[in-house]
């Protein structure tokens, strides 16, 4: 298995009660997802909020167990892997540096915590490693004694990046790492992530609702809708030849001035559906401008495309038949 990270048929459901005596309902946040990440790749995972992308991130970080399916890191099942070994393989950077950094701890404490948790090095060597990693992410030695509230948003995200990299991981899972930041700071952080990738040969899973951000960084893109990956393609191919109607709608919204606000409902017709009560057939059918006879009752086929990509849509089903 060449993949550094692989998801096989991964699903995650939650049981949810509506009100105190309400009936229990099942919310399936991730539905039978297959995904592979090769070394050095940046896989962009895009979709609207509520599509399951953060749940997927938590599953592959080992923060949540899948309801079914397998997560393999370095060819081995994630469940049961040695925690320190795993921390050296995969680290997260989350969206909000305000809430993900402990306000009562200094930058030194925050960045050195993974080393202390995993018993790596002694006092002086940790000090050295923290200073080194802060320098790498563009923070001066002076911030070591600062608390998060004394730093700007961009500085805080640099601290979060330093904390992720202090363990020298192979894979970094970035969940909307720039969406809480000002636009000018966003591009600095994206450039930094890009430089770090080149310098240290990192592999990223880059989660974002913003296709423009993904285009900047990703080598491959997976588009997620209501818990399913509905299209996957190389980044240039996806932007030049988007196949799934949802991908096309997302791309159209990139071209509107309000792209940062996500997908405007006006472009997609109906609003994002309730994941507790997903539409039948193709889950995208109530919003799809291309829907036709089978879409509201038949689950669409997964149709292979170029270079290991695929699209899950009835529009391409003849090709699905032809390739079998
Ligand atoms: Fe649209 Fe039908 Fe394709 Fe779903 S399967 S995206 S409804 S055309
Ligand atoms: Mg999210």
TrEMBL record:
One of its GO terms (molecular function) is ATP binding. Transmembrane segments: none annotated. It comes from the Bacteria. It holds the Pfam family ABC_tran. The keyword Transport applies. Residues 5-251 form the ABC transporter domain. It is a peripheral membrane protein. It is found in: Cell inner membrane. Keywords: ATP-binding, Nucleotide-binding, Transport. Belongs to the ABC transporter superfamily. PANTHER family: D,D-DIPEPTIDE TRANSPORT ATP-BINDING PROTEIN DDPF-RELATED, TRANSPORT ATP-BINDING PROTEIN. This is ABC transporter ATP-binding protein. It comes from Jiella mangrovi.
């Amino acid at each position: 298995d060449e993949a550094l990270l692989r998801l096989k048929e991964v699903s995650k459901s939650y049981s949810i009660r509506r009100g105190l005596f309400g009936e229990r309902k099942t919310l399936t946040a991730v539905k039978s997802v297959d995904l592979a990440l090769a070394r050095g790749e940046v896989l962009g995972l895009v979709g609207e909020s509520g599509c399951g992308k953060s749940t997927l991130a938590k599953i592959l970080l080992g923060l949540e167990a899948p309801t079914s399916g397998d997560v393999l890191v370095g060819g081995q099942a994630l469940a049961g892997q040695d925690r320190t070994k795993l921390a050296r393989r995969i680290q997260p950077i989350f969206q909000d540096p305000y809430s993900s950094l402990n306000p009562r701890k200094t930058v030194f404490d925050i960045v050195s915590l993974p080393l202390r948790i995993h018993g790596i090095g002694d006092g002086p060597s940790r000090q050295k490693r923290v200073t080194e990693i802060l320098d790498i992410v563009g923070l001066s030695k002076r911030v070591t004694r600062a608390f998060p509230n004394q730093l700007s948003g961009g500085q805080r995200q640099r601290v979060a990046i330093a904390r992720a990299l202090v363990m020298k991981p192979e894979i970094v899972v970035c969940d909307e790492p720039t969406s809480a930041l000002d636009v000018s700071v966003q591009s600095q952080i994206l450039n930094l992530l890009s430089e770090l990738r080149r310098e240290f040969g990192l592999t990223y899973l880059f989660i974002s609702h913003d296709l423009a951000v993904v285009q900047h960084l990703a080598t491959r893109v997976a588009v997620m809708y209501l818990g399913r990956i509905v299209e996957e393609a190389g980044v240039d191919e996806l932007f030049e030849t988007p196949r799934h109607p949802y991908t096309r709608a997302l791309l159209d919204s990139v071209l509107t001035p309000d792209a940062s606000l996500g997908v405007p409902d006006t472009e997609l017709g109906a609003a994002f559906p309730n994941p507790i009560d997903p539409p039948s057939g193709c889950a995208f059918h109530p919003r799809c401008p291309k829907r036709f006879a089978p879409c509201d009752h038949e689950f669409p086929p997964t149709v292979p495309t170029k270079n290991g990509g695929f699209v899950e849509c009835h529009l391409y089903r003849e090709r699905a038949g032809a390739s079998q």
